[in-house]
Every structure is written in structure tokens, then in C-alpha cells.
Amino acid sequence: MTPDLMAAGAQARARAVQQAQAGGGRGFVSQEPYFGQGVALYLEDISVSFDGFRALNALTLTIDVGELRCIIGPNGAGKTTMMDCITGKTRPDSGKIFFGSNIDLLRLTEPRISQIGVGRKFQKPTVYEQLSVFENLELALAADRRVRASLFSRLSGAQLDRIGEVLTLIHLKDEAQRTAGLLSHGQKQWLEIGMLLMQNPKLLLLDEPVAGMTDEETERTAELFLSLEGQHSLVVVEHDMKFVDQLTQGRKKVTVLHEGSVLAEGLLSDVQANDKVVEVYLGR
What we know:
Layout: H1 3-22, E1 39-50, E2 53-64, E3 68-72, H2 79-87, E4 94-99, E5 103-104, H3 110-115, E6 118-121, H4 133-139, H5 147-152, H6 157-169, H7 185-197, E7 203-207, H8 215-228, E8 233-237, H9 241-248, E9 253-258, E10 261-267, H10 268-272, H11 275-282
Parallel strand pairs: 3-8, 3-9, 6-7, 7-8
Antiparallel strand pairs: 1-2, 1-4, 4-5, 9-10
């Protein structure tokens, strides 16, 4: 981590400690990530081995605030392991992971990482299929995620407005009262993304979000992600190169992983012309 980032992080941590002490806080210091240096996520020299197989090999990666970054690479390149490390599911053997310049994610539990604004969507959608679309979003409200509170408290006007905004954003406004289990695969994917958005994440990790979607659903998903760019930082792991092209629009950076480290990085046209990338991933 650069000296500027380290200094900014140290100052932010010191402020959080002072606030906790002034308020009589005990135990874990509640912190907000500090994005003043423009960095949302920073991985440095992350290595992970499983039974002798090195899934990540000194991986270093930086995601800027509000950036939409696509991560591509062959199966076994380390993409899922990288997300597991960021979210606390897997602890790396070595390296650093910072959210903003002040929050060391390696010191936090998986639930706590989610609470401070890191949201993850897996390839297979996970929704409450017996509940309506509206009820799924209601349960995901960040204000109080306890099921009892969600079921027995009345929604405020602001909360209703927020659900309405998300329903429109994920193209499910007309399906609000429909049972989630009756949605198409693509609609379930949108609903799960909406559930993440209800929790106001600052960083979204999206693992092959258009797998199994129709061409129309894929195009609408690209529109959705582009509308989130700037408001959220997004890391999209994907194999569908047409979808990656739609997201990057010829001007955004793409990262190629291979054997647990960065093989190439740059505009999509540049990495597609990279001989090493062609050899290990894209083919002729």
C-alpha cells in the first residue's frame, strides 16, 4: 500500500478510535471505510494454497471508487478464491486486503464484512422462492435485517420509496407481488441483485451474473450494471465476452487472471490482442 494510502488509513482509524472512546464504546470499533484516496478495494500479494495447489499467487489488484471492473480468465485462474478472500470466506496464507484505505478486511468476520458494505452475488441466484418479489426486498432492508423486525414492523414511507426505486431499477416493478419461485432465471438474478442493493453496499462482487440468461436479459443486466457504476464499485467476474464488451464500452479496464495472479490488464481490445491471453484463455 502506498505511503499516502497508509497515512490516510491511519488517520481514519485514529478518528474511529477517538469517536468510540468518546462515546464509551467497547470491543469492535465501528468504522466507515475511508475512500478519500479514491481507492475502494486494495489487494496486495495475496496468496492462497489448498493441499499444495496455489489458487492465488501474490495477487495484487486495485479497484477505484465507483469503478466497474471486469475480471476474466480461464477456469482455475483464482477468480472465485479472490472473491472468497475479499468476503472473509477464505483466509489467505499471506498478503493484505483493505476496503478503502482504513479497513483491514483480514481482521473481520464474514458477516461483519457484509455489514460494512461489501455485497456478493454468487452465480446461482438465492432468493426466498415462497415469498413475493416485494417481500424478498423487504427482508433485505439494511435498517433491521432481523426476520422478526422485518415481518412485524410497518415500513416507513422512505423504505417503501426505496423498495419502489429498486423494483424499477431491476426491471421487476410489474412483478412486485409475484411469487419469486415463479420468476424466470434471469428475473431471479435481478431480484438477488436488488436484495443486495437494499443493503446499500459500497462494493458489489458479482460472479458470472448473466450465466443462463437470454440475450435480452443479458442486455438489460448490462444496462443495470452501467446505471450502478459511479454510485457503487463493481467487480464483475464473467466468461461471456459479449457481455464484458457491453460493460466496458471500449474504455474501461479489464483484468485477466491466470494461475492465481494478474496475467494482463488494460482495455478489452488490448487484452484480446495479448498473445499470452489468447494462448491461455481466448484461443484463436
